[in-house]
Amino acid sequence: MTRTRIYLDWNATAPLRPEARTAMAAAWDCVGNPSSIHEEGRAARRLVEAARVAVATAVEADPAQVVFTSGGTEANVLALSPLFGGAAPLARLITSAIEHPSVLAGGRFAANQISRFGVSARGTVDLDDLRRKLGEGPPALVSVMLANNETGAVQPVAEVAALVHAAGSLLHVDAVQAFGRIKFTIKDLDADLVTVSGHKIGAPKGVGALIGRGGAGMPQALVTGGGQERGRRAGTENVAAIAGFGAAITAAMAAAPTEIVHMLRLRRLLEEGLKASPDVVIFAEDVERLPNTTLFGRRGLRAETAVIGFDLAGIAVSSGAACSSGKVSASHVLAAMGVPGPLAESAVRLSLGPSTGESEILGVLEAWRKLSGVLGKDG
Ligand code: PLP
Fold first, then answer.
1. To the nearest whole number, what is the mean pLDDT of the chain?
2. Residue 146: pLDDT above 60?
3. Cα 366 to averaged position of ligand 1 atoms, centre (Å)
4. pLDDT score, position 38
5. Predicted pLDDT at 219
6. Is the minimum distance from the CB of 174 to ligand 1 under 6 angstroms?
7. Which domain holds residue 58?
8. Which of 102, 154, 182 to mutate to test the pocket of ligand 1 (most atoms within 8 A of CB)?
9. Do residues 162 and 48 share a domain?
């Protein structure tokens, strides 16, 4: 008998939305190359351009400023370039300490051009530290995420933007976890560049976009060759994935008001249940978080053991930090928040989705009650 699994790892990736599946299936039958001028090519081009409008509309951007990429990672690396438009090269990159590894790696900046600013114990960026770093040198490119993938903490990006622009610097915002999950526009953020990705919102994996504001121009191309994406990203477009991305974001935006209320209700139920067991800590609990994310820990528990225990109970969760190589590494986010090692090592992330049901949350709490009894102080 096959057991029904409970999937609570939507921040790692989300199941495909039916609208994306339908759009992709139709696109697979579209034979043309979007760069070809014949009718088949024009039909493929129409799919790409409709998706471009859908992605731009979600953040009230100009579709001409959307560059499709192979995902959030590529969009981040494309954004992190010293060369923008025709302007003189930027001499430095400043990122927060809690960014995704694709931002922390610094893109096309040399290691000695990169500096970091800190976060508070609550999980949001330290604006005073950013102000200090901005004052230490010439205009910079600053990269800050909108919502953290581990804690879900929503960052004060508009306040960051005010500091960055007052210093004559540029702002890139990694909005991969926030896109389609909380409402924002590129204007509200006052960002010069925004990264989004498809697979967190029910589009296929392997598609994303870098969205520009217009004024500062776009970064120098990372992938060069043909003139696709207005010369900003060479290579024949992944038409089906892009069409799926457009369909998924349109569906996500339409459903967001109800989905957010639903996820917040379930998360409250989840967190009340978790906190019923002694010593459980919810990280970044006091700040605004993505409606679907709970990162919790308990001193003495080992995250890997808990993740395996949940898995054996039929529940997919993740440890605080993503494990790209199947190996769990210590969370740089919790370290930056000053969380002591033993507590940070216990962090387990539960990330819900719009199709998560109340019975699934009750199932998770039941599993946690059993696990937390078995996994005593030594995990
Ligand atoms: N940025 C953040 C905040 C993420 O959470 C992720 C993926 O987990 C990425 C960037 C990378 O996106 P992708 O998986 O599309 O390369």
1. 95
2. yes
3. 31
4. 98
5. 96
6. yes
7. 18-250
8. 102
9. yes
The CA angle 138-142-145, to the nearest 5 degrees, is 170
Q: Give the number of the atom of ligand 1 that is nearest the alpha carbon of residue 12.
A: 8
Co-location of 268 and 244 in the same domain: no
Predicted confidence (pLDDT) per residue in 113-136, tens digit: 999 999 999 999 999 999 999 999
Q: Would you say residue 1 lies in a domain?
A: no
pLDDT: which is higher, 31 or 214: 31
**pTM exceeds 0.85:** yes
Cα(303) to ligand 1 centroid in Å equals: 21
| Dihedral angle, C-alpha 127, 128, 134, 135, nearest 10 ° | 160
Ligand 1 midpoint to CA 20 (Å): 19
Please give the positions annotated as active site: 323
- Counting Cα atoms < 13 Å in the Cβ hemisphere of 338 gives 9
Residue type for position 238: N
Pocket test for ligand 1, best of 9, 70, 73, 245 (most atoms within 8 A of CB): 73
Q: Is the pLDDT of residue 203 over 80?
A: yes
**DSSP state, residue 154:** B
- Distances in Å between the Cα of 354 and the Cα atoms of 132, 168, 201, 207, 343 are 40, 40, 10, 21, 30
- Band of pLDDT at residue 2, cut at 50, 70 and 90: low
In terms of domains, do 206 and 263 share one? Answer: no
